[in-house]
Amino acid sequence: MSTTETAKPELLLAHHLKKLKLPTFLSEYDKIARLCAQDGVDHPRYLLRLAELELIERERRMVERRIRAARFPATKSLDSFDFKAIPTLNKMLVIELARCDYVERRENIIALGPSGTGKTHIALGLGLAACQRGMTVGFATAAGLVNQLIEARDERRLLRLQSGLGKLKLLIVDELGYVPLSPVGAELLFEVFSQRYERGSTIVTSNLPFEEWTSVFGSERLTGALLDRLTHHVHILEMNSDSYRLKQSKSRRHKSSRSEPKPGNETVDPETGEVTT
Ligand code: ADP
Ligand code: MG
């Protein structure tokens, strides 16, 4: 056989596999063929192995895409969460929620508690779990989302943004309550929650108890209507504890104060009041 004859089917095969979008078939078929020949594996099983590899890779790429699209500010998983540090949090409920059945049921989650108690960490962990199950997820702070909405409205692409937000299986709105919203901002955020009602799941984290949400949205009528929708099918995560960050830095300082104190060189975390030297 001439070299052109042997090269030809491989080139054609590469072309076809690319066109069929089977990159793993293409990169692995030669290696797997040699392994199968060594082990005396027949053709159906050889093809089965390749098909399985293709599926595994495809799923991995899809999860990666979901994670990128979610725009998480950091990757945190529930594995690194220390549940003992926050006894008010129902660990079994969080573990159950990580299975993401609530997303299929279009239920919501609200995590409430002071700053530094792990609300964002839990929201990120649940978001990651949803991505790993192939669900579409979006993450934004309440203030960031309102800015996006106002910008989209000014640029006449509000409907497109709203429709995109409405299609997400899970939307995470972090830090509701740190900044009071303008009347327009409150109305736009209300519309997002309203459009998602019974169509998709929403996770909200807030440092404010429900009674104080009116101070964020300005209007009692709007807050009532919003809470009505958001809490119709909801899991509440009570995260009342001392700040995890603060506790950690206290124990760090406790250890270092026994070595050498350095007065007059502190910075204060504006969010937690945590003092670091
Ligand atoms: P919050 O959103 O309630 O202000 P964060 O989730 O941002 O708090 O937590 C502050 C920091 O402390 C983060 O780095 C987070 O990963 C960490 N943290 C908080 N609680 C825990 C915990 N129970 N176990 C592990 N890390 C935690
Ligand atoms: Mg937070």
Write the layout of secondary structure elements.
Blueprint (H helix, E strand, L loop, with lengths): L2 H17 L3 H17 L3 H28 L20 H7 L3 H4 L3 E5 L6 H14 L4 E5 H13 L3 H10 L2 E7 L6 H14 L4 E6 L7 H4 L2 H11 L3 E5 L5 H14 L9 E2 L6 E2 L1
Parallel strand pairs: 1-4, 1-5, 2-3, 3-4
Antiparallel strand pairs: 6-7
Helix pairs in contact: 2-3, 3-6, 7-8, 7-9, 9-11
Overall structural class, as computed from helix and strand content, comes to: alpha/beta
Strand content: 5-15%
Number of helices: 12
Distance between the termini: 76 Å
Shape: globular
The count of β-strands is 7
Order of helices and strands: HHHHHEHEHHEHEHHEHEE
Q: What is the subunit organization of this protein?
A: single chain
Which ligands, by name, code or SMILES, are bound?
adenosine-5'-diphosphate, magnesium ion
Taking all Cα atoms into account, the compactness measure Rg is 25 Å
Task: Average the pLDDT over all residues and give the rounded result.
Answer: 90
Estimated helix fraction: 55-70%
